[in-house]
Amino acid sequence: MVTLKGEHIYLRALEPEDLSFLSSIENDENLWELSHTQAPYSQYILKQYLANSHQDIFEAKQLRLIISNYEDQPLGMIDLFDFDFKNSRAGVGILVQKLENRQKGYGKEALHLLINYCFTHLNLHQLYCNISEDNKASIKLFTNQGFEKVGLKKDWTFQNKTYKNEYLLQLINS
């Protein structure tokens, strides 16, 4: 059995009841820089996304899981994207929604659970992530889980009338 349960949180599949939570994240302009979002998502589009979220990672090439506490409150999301079966790799993204829930270990626990799942159940060889150079908390989160900075993409993203550098980090399953 796949265990995606930690001490304080667990990872679960998206459910139709997650519509308002998903909408609050996807339509929060303060978070758009992280996801490279350019415009709001309608409830209609998000309902369609949830209806198709049952697709297998091999079919959809992505997997989004809800980070939930044991009171069944959604705290955030963790994603696998650009799943590449041939090259045995995927990108990782994570978000803990509310500021008061950050720096409490939820992201660390969720990332640890996802890494274990990817290497033991999906048999991936490597994971990677892209993090803005000024996002010190995310850099620390990923490097503490064994990810290494392998490159710096200069002037990679344009936000608030300025270009920002972005690190590429990688974790190879040895």
Automatic annotation (TrEMBL):
Pfam families: Acetyltransf_3. SUPFAM superfamilies: Acyl-CoA N-acyltransferases (Nat) (SSF55729). Residues 9-170 form the N-acetyltransferase domain. It comes from the Bacteria. Signal peptide: none annotated. InterPro entries: Acyl_CoA_acyltransferase, GNAT_dom. Gene3D superfamilies: 3.40.630.30. PANTHER family: GNAT-FAMILY ACETYLTRANSFERASE, SPERMIDINE N(1)-ACETYLTRANSFERASE. This is GNAT family N-acetyltransferase. It comes from Gelidibacter pelagius.
